[in-house]
Amino acid sequence: MTERDAYDVVVAGGGPAGAAAALALAAAGRSVLLAHSGGGPAAVGEALPAAARPLLRDLGAESVLRDEGHVPCQANQSVWGSPELASADAIFDPHGHGWHIDRPAFDHALRAVAAERGGDVVQRRVMPSAARRTGDGWTVPVCGMDGGRDVRCRWIVDATGRPAAFAVAAGARRRGFDRLIAVHLTLDAGDPAAEDASTLVEATPDGWWYTALLPRGRRLLVRYTDTDLATACELAAPDAFRARLASAPHTAARVAEHPFPPDLRPRRAPAHTAFLDRPCGEGWVAVGDAAAAYDPLSSQGILTALYTGLRAGRAVDAALSGDAAAGDRYAEDVRTVTMAYLRNRLAYYRAETRWADRPFWQRRQGGGADVGPGLGSEAGAAAGSAAGAEARSAATSEAGSDSGAGLGADAGAEVRPVTSAEA
Length: 423
Description:
Number of helices: 11
Distance between the termini: 31 Å
Strand content: 25-35%
Helix content: 25-40%
Shape: globular
């Protein structure tokens, strides 16, 4: 592949959101450079809901799920609102089962499809703070092992994840909603006969636990709590992390067959809700976690990445064709998804009443009082409007496609008790 000096669009970031945007743009015949750094912490295994099928179909990327390393998820289980275990079986999902995916393999496969469709996919790092406006486009420094160079483009897609590096450099403001943090371990394979491929979420007095089987028999174990609570500091020590499992008996039983290596230390990753005050501007658009990062309880991380990548790619194509309102429509798409998410988040956290006097739960059951100004006062009001909503532990989020409603567009859509660590 011969790299060019000018493109219609540069996509900064090669995760699912960036790859989806590149796919949509390449399908529209636009020249696109997808630059991914290839560095940073290795992605932890994640859950992909069955509702991702129509999005992948719309992207022409259904083949990415054929990797034998992805583990089918046949049920989502939760201990939430009571000490009893509830289960939602995949047989009742119109889209079939979900997956516990091998994230590196999944991301690589999406980028490979983007390259097959005509996108230039390179392992390079875009320098957002050094990008500059030039006429009707941008000049963007792109660096790699062989040095750096400037690339010209008309639009930039910010797919840099939670930092939203380009959007922030362009003047957008990042708003945090809470202080949620993930403390996680990946355990080695246990007894194959005892493997349970369902996900499990379990509420406890100061947060909640999540566990799921990963490819090659490994198991992901995550504790979610607020970073300012004492439990977050205690969890840094392996012994304390394991001791805390006593408050989550169902989770403890699920991981019992997996050895805890003595030198294995828990890792931390941000898991708080955050969003931009505006997901697009003059000649740029943010996708995935850069636009809006959700509480992992929703299991919407990759789903939202694919959706916003697809919508943003089409919006940029329309803008390049002279549609001045394309960016506004995309911003409305993101706002609609986020508003539905906030309502669902509140409804689900309010369903857990056993520890209503504990700080972790008090903060999440107060009608949206902690909502930052990123979505304006409307966000707090929308979250509060879910006060009377019934949250069910077996509920399922739906994702939209060309043939259906937008992701989360139904304000009554319910949260899904499945999650993953974002690292």
